Amino acid sequence: MLKSVIARLTFLLVFSAGLLSACGGGEPDRPGQGATALGGPPTVASDPLALPAYVPTRSEGGGERRAIEVIRGWSEALRLGDIDRASSFWGLPAKIQNATPVLTLRSRDDVRAFNLSLTCGAILTAAGKAKEFTILKMRLAARRGADCGSGVGKPARTAIRVEGDKIVEWYRLPDDPEAPRPAPPPRETPTTTLPDSSPVI
Fold it and tell me: Structure pTM?
């Protein structure tokens, strides 16, 4: 079962890489609209890799202590290669986006497959809050049992939403918090294809 889930996730990651210059479709406004589920065919949007409009890209103040504790616990378990413990910090369903369309993790196997797909661990270096999200700056690190390669030491930024002490949304952010967000594409009918006071971060 797990192998089939990993295979589906791998397909979607590879499939989405081919969509970098694709066109056609609409943009989701809130979670659940226009998102791709791991159990069904992906939906191609005008810019399928665009960050959803409701996800903030920079912090507006200090982060919430409990949310940061949950995220830190997850990142430490992942870095140690403890995939089961890392997965235990996630709720269901959960939305994720990591150079892919927005995907929905609907089962514990989906969550485990996503955590396995992260070949680098991460060390938190700064955290802030924006809307209901925690905005994090991290430094990529080796993950036990995986090969992070040249990624070790490189910066990364994420927006993570914690609800009920569980991660329910996870988005990779642009490295530059000042980078302008692309203008939203015109709305069209979606088509289906086959298979702190912390510093601004």
Answer: 0.70
